[in-house]
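Troubleshooting entry. The earlier prediction with adenosine-5'-diphosphate gave an output that would not parse, so I re-checked the input for stray whitespace and re-submitted. Clean input:
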Amino acid sequence: MLARVRSGALRGIDALVVDVEVDVSSGLPHTTTVGLPDGAVREAADRIRAALRNAGFEYPQRRITVNLAPAGVRKEGTHYDLPIALGILAAEAKPPLPDLAPWCVLGELGLDGHVHRVRGALPIAAAAKRAGLHAILVPAPNAAEAALADGPAVIGVDTLAEAVAHLRGEAPRKPTTIDAAALLSTTPLAASDLADVRGQQSAKRALEIAAAGGHNVLLIGPPGSGKTMLARRLPSILPPLDLDEAIEVTAIQSVAGLLDGRPLVTTRPVRAPHCSISDAALLGGGAPIRPGEVTLAHRGVLFMDELPEFRRNVLEPLRQPLEERRITVARGAGSVVFPADFQLVTAMNPCPCGYLGDAADTCRCTPPILDRYRSRVSGPLLDRIDLHVEVPRVPVALLGDEAPGEETSVVVRARVGAARARQRRRLAPRPVPLNAHIPGREVRRLCRIGPPGRRLLEAASDRLGLSARAYTRILRVARTIADLAGEDEITTSHLAEAIQYRSLDRHPGNSR
Ligand SMILES: Nc1ncnc2c1ncn2[C@@H]1O[C@H](COP(=O)(O)OP(=O)(O)O)[C@@H](O)[C@H]1O
Ligand SMILES: [Mg+2]
Ligand SMILES: [Zn+2]
């Protein structure tokens, strides 16, 4: 007898519906799976056999053929266990299961018949919705995320026996529902607040500009000066996630297997990969293919500490996501595209010994050593970083201060929101209405300056030796500074502040 049920295959952070056909016929006991299954899918038969027996069902001592269609799509992951097991029961069990055709099913089986959580339940539920399916059966820990798709009725189960009892109507389970908007609106503010950072007024100002205009940042300062602390607080001054963004971020974490049963990711992600990270882990890759850190940071912050320590082969390919806000991951014959729209915050010591420009200690690095150190971050990546921010060490006395009186993230976030609204009015209907994303050829038109501003910039160029690229970066940042001030005109004082954030364009060592 032949049974048919649906499941899903992941493609990037999307999915498509897969037909699972199970044929049980007379012949020597043997199970064959066809339709481009990968290792985990081919091994499913062993898990299913044990799970069925231990849950009190029989594994047919006959010839079983499992066909996964469309055949051109690779089937990866362990979530085909449950649909195949139910397909076998539908084809063979007495009493038989009702028709499974309206169902999309996913779940990994333990040998004892437990149903374990899987990756990608949200995108698969969304695919089931697009395909017009009415119900989806998922592992209980995946039920909330599947309900986010707001499509098929979601039934969560913990065991194979529960799934069967529900399908037979013996012990019907309640569909899982979720109020995503309510979850989002009751999200507390980020745990760490800008007010935790004492002093550092100019670094905080730079972070505010970065948040307002979507600019990437490089923090330069000695160890212990608070660079990591500052970087981690950038999301607290970014606008909160809207519902679509929250669902998108949740889908990414679902595909990455990082959701851990949470119904909805409600805060912007911060990812801080170590400098020893491989290109596959940073950019995406592996088998089955997983999103990398650049995708996990989508709609949030990618923090790369000790920037010069990262390997060239991971830094160079960062250019694509920084320009296109997505990443193409090659695999075998084809490729997968993951979203990768993040704000980049990087940090480095001013020199290898860490003390260049430090008030309390002296630097022992020679000019050639300094040059080599800085050249490790020069080039394409530095070109994409609008703000260079010097972060000096804060005096110990200030750290112990009992009455901080520092501005909180809520206050800063409100100014960021107002500046973003101004950009939206000017840049709509662009997909990303942020100054940092104004294309080079349009900078002069959209960030117009008057003759006094031009004179100031020319003088600064002569003095600092700024490149043409640095020039457009200064204009974008000056535009954001004007937007924060609520002004339509970019003034010389906006420009003067923007010029300060190009410290790495100056000749190393000379300017200190
Ligand atoms: N401005 C500051 N306000 C409060 N604490 C600070 C400040 N600067 C440094 N610290 C303390 O020093 C520690 C080290 O800071 P960190 O951000 O790791 O420095 P860096 O990344 O520059 O090496 C922090 O955990 C924090 O406790
Ligand atoms: Mg640090
Ligand atoms: Zn040094």
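This one parsed fine. Residues 199 and 355 are 20 Å apart (CA to CA).
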